[in-house]
Amino acid sequence: MHFAEEYWFGGGYIAYLKQTHGIDLPEKIFLIAQGIGLVLMLAGILIARRLGFIETMLVIFGAVITANGLTHIITSILQSMYGPGLITSIFVWLPLGLATLIRFHGNFGSARYWFAVLVGVGINIVVVLFTLRGGV
């Protein structure tokens, strides 16, 4: 749902980046990056299941989607405009991410939990930097 909103709604995220930041993100790069993200998430799930750290992976995913949702919401507020991905960020990403983080808080050691949160936030930062560089 989130990818579909970013791709099709409000003229699409590519046009949004061009309008708001002057960034030319080629559609091919956008689609490849989305595909790579999906493959990495699926690989992460398989590896986490195999090695027995599925709860830690869920916290990482919860942090990624919470950070991504907040990024969409904050930029839309700061720019006083709709940005593709905002609706699913408000109604899907943020509630799902926060529910996941709350659900697994206290399930394992504090250091491991917060490390997983930092990894998730770090992944979102990498995605933001990649996007703001036009996929370069």
Spatial shape: globular
Quickly count the helices.
6
Over all CA atoms, what is the radius of gyration?
15 Å
Distance between the termini: 26 Å
Describe the structure.
It is a single chain. With 136 residues, the protein is mostly helical. It has 6 helices and no strands. It has helices at 2-8, 13-21, 27-51, 54-79, 86-104, 110-132. The longest helix is centred in the middle third of the chain and has 26 residues, at 54-79. It is globular. The model has no long low-confidence stretch (mean pLDDT 92).
Short synopsis of the structure:
The chain is an all-alpha fold. 80% of the residues lie in helices and 0% in strands. It starts with a helix and ends with a helix.
Feature tags:
single chain, 136 residues, mainly alpha, globular
Write the layout of secondary structure elements.
Elements: H1 2-8, H2 13-21, H3 27-51, H4 54-79, H5 86-104, H6 110-132
